[in-house]
Amino acid sequence: MKNRLVKIICFSVSSLATLLLLAIVAFMVKESWPVWHSLGVGAIVTGTDWHPMANPPQLGIGTMILSTLWSALGAIMLATPLGLGAAIFLAEFAPPWLARLIRPVLNILTGIPSVVYGFVGAAVLVKFFEVSFGMPSGESLFCASLILTVMVLPYIITNSEAALRAVPNQYRETALAVGVSKQYLTIKVLLPLAKKGLVGAIILAFGRAAGETMAVLMLAGNTLVLPTSWFSKGEPLSALIALELGTSVVGSAHYQALFAAGLVLLVFVTAINILLNVIRNGKRNVVSKR
Predict the structure, then answer these.
(1) Is the bond leading into 56 cis (omega within 30 degrees of zero)?
(2) Please, are residues 149 and 79 in contact by the beta-carbon 8 Å criterion?
(3) 285 falls in which pLDDT band (50, 70, 90)?
(4) Nearest CA among 101, 110, 65, 113 for reference residue 83
(5) How far apart are CA 124 and CA 80, in angstroms?
(6) Is 88 in contact with 75 (CB distance < 8 Å)?
(7) What is the dihedral of CA 195, 199, 200, 205, to 10 degrees?
(8) Is the pLDDT of residue 222 over 80?
């Protein structure tokens, strides 16, 4: 009876969460549908001119999508080697007392509000680039990527360490019994066995970086110019919505286009999560076959 009650509660909560997500998607489609219908998906997603108050309005968000990719992919490129290295150290080489000391610190880092990271970045990193390189403004997509790197590192380290620890100990015992070094065991045995979990950790971190708002809003520069390099200024999708939604007129093309930008970001992050689940399911199937 108790188990049945728990199953009913879990099913109800899961169903409500799914309905809530579908309701959000339906609401955003409804609010943005007029601009999708009048301009088409291609003109909005690939367009690079954002002049919502012009007549006719120009509502291309390609510049913001590219800024999102520059900042998020840049952060993942920096965070992946650091995160995987730290995870390998914690899982295989760190003394137990040191691992127990570091793990709570990683949990604390995930709980720090993003506005705090943005404030530190604006006060330290932006000033550093302005003073060290004589730049009129130190804000850039690179600066945003540096802070995003710090923000996503705990996700990569924690999930990658869990993936490594999930590898059965019999592989370690067998490899060490035949005389291979711990370094060889880690590189040639453990990493290949845990690779799906490691990839999942990186994808999860990428979704976190792509959806971040406050830090990139404070550091990316917020210019609607097509970014041509990592060191250009830009305005990611999340920053665009946060900056302009409050000043748009409800029901206007500007308002509808911001919902279209939000829908693109939602679909993007949802697709990343679906990919993550596919990888995890594949990992479970591999483990179950062993």
Answers:
(1) yes
(2) yes
(3) low
(4) 110
(5) 23
(6) no
(7) 140
(8) yes
Name the average pLDDT for the chain: 87
Determine the Cα–Cα distance for residues 35 and 152; give it in Å rounded to an integer: 34
- Residue 119 has which token pair? 């404030």
Closest CA to 216 of 139, 283, 106, 289: 139
* Nearest of 200, 272, 210, 195 to residue 73 by alpha carbon: 210
- To 10 degrees, the CA torsion angle through 226, 231, 236, 239? -120
Determine the pLDDT at residue 7.
85
Radius of gyration of the chain (CA): 22
3-state secondary structure the chain: CHHHHHHHHHHHHHHHHHHHHHHHHHHHHHHHHHHHHHHCHHHHHHCCCEECCCCCCEECCHHHHHHHHHHHHHHHHHHHHHHHHHHHHHHHHCCHHHHHHHHHHHHHHHHCCHHHHHHHHHHHHHHHHHHHHCCCCCCCHHHHHHHHHHHHHHHHHHHHHHHHHCCCHHHHHHHHHCCCCHHHHHHHHHHHHCHHHHHHHHHHHHHHHHHCCHHHHHHCECCCCCCCCCCCCECCHHHHHHHHHHHCCCCCHHHHHHHHHHHHHHHHHHHHHHHHHHHHHHHHHHHHHC
Spatial separation of the C-alpha atoms in residues 192 and 186, rounded to whole Å: 9
What is the C-alpha to C-alpha distance for residues 107 and 111, in angstroms, rounded to an integer? 7
pLDDT above 90 covers a percentage of the chain that reads: 33
User: Are the C-beta atoms of 195 and 282 separated by less than 8 Å?
Assistant: no
Give the model confidence (pLDDT) of 74-112 as tens digits: 999 999 999 999 999 999 999 999 989 998 998 888 888
Instruction: Give which of 87, 78, 40 is closest to 59, Cα–Cα.
Output: 40
Residue reference for tokens 């954002």: 50
> Across residues 16-23, what is the average pLDDT?
91
